[in-house]
Amino acid sequence: MSLSRTLLFTLALSLQQVALAASSLPSSLPPSGPKVQILTEGLEYPWSLSFLPSGGFLLTERSGQLVTLGSDGQVLQKLDVNLPEFYAAAQGGLLEVLLADNFAQSGRLFLSYVCGTANANSVCLASASWQDNQLTDVKKIFRATPDRRGAAHYGGRMVQLPDQSLVLTLGDGFDYREQAQNKANHLGKIVRLQQDGSVPADNPFVGQAAVAAEIFTLGHRNVQGIIYDAATGKLWSHEHGPKGGDELNLLQAGVNYGWPVATTGIDYTGARISPFTRFTGMAEPVYQWSPSIAPAGMTLYRGEAFPQYHGNIFITALAGKALHRLVLDGDKVIEEEKLLTELDSRLRDVRTGPDGLIYILTDGPAGKLLRLTPQ
Question: Which one, 27, 49, 138, 162, has the greatest CB density within 10 A?
Fold first, then answer.
């Protein structure tokens, strides 16, 4: 064997030994992301998820079912919810289920849903008691006004504040976008209510003539994500823009968030909606997306299972087909990461479980409940 061939053989053998040695060492590379487990399949357009204090889940299907799942994701019951004037079509139907903070003692929960007919419908809010896996004492406590035609842009997300009041998001009805600036009605607004549907005395517009006293904030398009962060006392929401201009907002009572006067989005036809991307007296978004991702659910992570995610906001995207992780520095988004793109699935809701794990509902006629666990 020639000297040059001997050197090449020796070099190749050395590289092979190095590779074998490296393969036996523990990897120092960080995991690529959380592991995804499928807990439940075959859900019909699941919309909202909540956690039962005894373990397991309650979730809504947009067609009108309240589904009980065991802690392993097994479907235990599908209950047809008998809500007053219930109407399901396109984006409308049964929306959010929210368990009262004292649910373990009271069994009280709240359901947002679409009520009325094809020619005259709106968002309604009902309270009910959950006893022995059945709904009792179902009462409609609020109906947004005015009614509208069509079946789009309802909002419907809810959160309970520390003072026990409820905050409910309401869409602009799609064809009624100018009404988001009309303080006389509820279209394109976020409202704040007592648990019996009455108006809190400290709502920002109480006592003003020709103003709907339920209004908490205005100038919204279609808010499908809202969270209250008990650690900071901040109330966050996101909303769908048109073609571009999806927004993340930090909510404050009485503030106007601009739609449709100020937006970075354009109409689906390509026409300009407004010449203004910002406007005096109207709040600018904390963060925005163009092209649109169609944000749906939202959670702010304060669990222990993923310490690297502490204080991050997670947002599920429908059109974007991803889980967006936002890193905050105070009230600013300083980093964004897209997760679960490999699923190629519309993601409807995301929640932090009491176990610190992250749970996700996928959208569609065969929706799934997913659980994210550390690698």
Answer: 49
